[in-house]
């Protein structure tokens, strides 16, 4: 307890504050450093070519953090968001050719006629790094929902095929995940211009949305491409237990809420079945929950022992989960920094360090340094 308390106090110490003794884990020894503070519920981040970091804050701000940990004023040009419940300004991703185009992609909760929905937008970052221009809407995950501001999903990743993949939550309305005329509870696949690729699985099918790549998802907030196999991995919140890691396949149904390892928050099982014909099983399940948010594969040089790992930012129990992998299999699990802070996102920097975003009104960016 004393060790965790000292680490938590150090979160307030400001940029580049070294934090107590090294942490000895199964495959690496590291120190936790506070890279930047003064952020309100940071949600996602992306490294720019100059080594600085763009960070979204859920209330609707986008900031740039310099390599020495200085946090900018909010960038201009960010569209208004629905910052209520779990909504707000959520994921950010750079275009694969960002160095040439300066194009960025953002996912947000948006208020529209009829309620709120998940929205994907594209914009260009100014050469001065202080604002966005040319903001355009690529997709609204319709239909909008009037009740509740939960389960927006909202993670973005580019696949090896050059297409954009977007996760959407089922907005806490379970039946939406199984509906093919509804974009909630899905993994969506688009061109970077927001068009539907002609080889999407439901193109031309009556009553189905052609943007859908997979369905039957509850609240997916983690997406990452396995750099060794090219497969798309997804982390998904269960209810009370039943959090999942899935490998996303074309046209597959991942079962929510027909099958689940989870329970209702008041106790009973969601479903008697954890597997069913025609539905794709997860490759890893947590019971009880860890509440998995952002995920990142480690392929850096700073921690050779961690190569091949998938890191999972965990909200409850708070901390960082490291999964050992071989190809497209999970072979082991290690819990790190348990109880330190609610972790919203994890990413690997160009320096090979691991960066963590803490989900708090006084949020921070932490860095794991070799020790």
From TrEMBL:
Domain Glucose/Sorbosone dehydrogenase: 39-367
Keyword Iron listed: no
Pfam annotation, one family: GSDH
Keyword terms, alphabetized: Signal
Gene3D superfamilies linked to this entry: TolB, C-terminal domain
High-level lineage: Bacteria, Pseudomonadati, Pseudomonadota, Alphaproteobacteria, Acetobacterales
Keyword Signal assigned: yes
Protein name, per record: Glucose/arabinose dehydrogenase
Leader peptide range in chain numbering: 1-18
InterPro entries: 6-blade_b-propeller_TolB-like (IPR011042), Glc/Sorbosone_DH (IPR012938), Quinoprot_gluc/sorb_DH_b-prop (IPR011041)
């Amino acid at each position: 307890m004393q060790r965790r308390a000292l680490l938590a106090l150090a979160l307030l110490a400001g940029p580049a504050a070294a934090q107590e003794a090294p942490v000895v884990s199964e495959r690496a020894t590291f120190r936790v450093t506070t890279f930047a503070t003064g952020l309100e519920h940071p949600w996602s981040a992306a490294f720019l070519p100059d080594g600085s970091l763009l960070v979204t804050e859920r209330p609707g701000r986008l900031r740039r953090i310099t390599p020495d940990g200085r946090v900018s004023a909010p960038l201009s040009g960010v569209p208004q968001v629905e910052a209520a419940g779990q909504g707000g300004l959520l994921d950010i991703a750079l275009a694969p050719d960002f160095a040439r185009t300066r194009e960025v992609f953002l996912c947000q909760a948006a208020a529209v006629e009829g309620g709120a929905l998940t929205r994907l937008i594209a914009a260009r970052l100014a050469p001065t790094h202080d604002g966005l221009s040319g903001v355009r809407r690529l997709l609204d995950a319709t239909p909008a929902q009037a009740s509740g501001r939960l389960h927006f999903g909202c993670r973005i990743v580019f696949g090896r095929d050059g297409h954009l993949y977007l996760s959407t939550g089922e907005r806490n309305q379970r039946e939406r995940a199984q509906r093919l005329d509804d974009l909630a509870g899905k993994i969506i696949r688009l061109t970077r211009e927001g068009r539907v690729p002609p080889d999407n699985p439901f193109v031309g099918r009556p009553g189905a949305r052609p943007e859908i790549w997979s369905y039957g998802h509850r609240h997916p907030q983690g997406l990452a491409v396995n750099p060794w196999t090219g497969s798309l991995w997804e982390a998904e919140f269960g209810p009370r237990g039943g959090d999942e890691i899935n490998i996303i396949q074309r046209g597959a149904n991942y079962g929510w809420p027909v099958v689940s390892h989870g329970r209702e928050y008041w106790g009973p099982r969601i479903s008697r079945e954890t597997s069913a014909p025609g539905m794709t099983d997860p490759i890893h399940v947590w019971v009880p929950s860890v509440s998995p948010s952002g995920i990142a594969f480690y392929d850096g040089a700073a921690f050779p022992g961690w190569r091949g790992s998938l890191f999972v930012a965990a909200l409850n129990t708070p901390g960082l989960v490291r999964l050992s992998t071989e190809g497209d299999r999970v072979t082991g699990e290690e819990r790190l920094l348990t109880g330190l802070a609610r972790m919203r996102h994890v990413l690997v920097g160009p320096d090979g360090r691991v960066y963590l975003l803490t989900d708090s009104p006084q949020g921070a960016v932490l860095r794991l340094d070799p020790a």
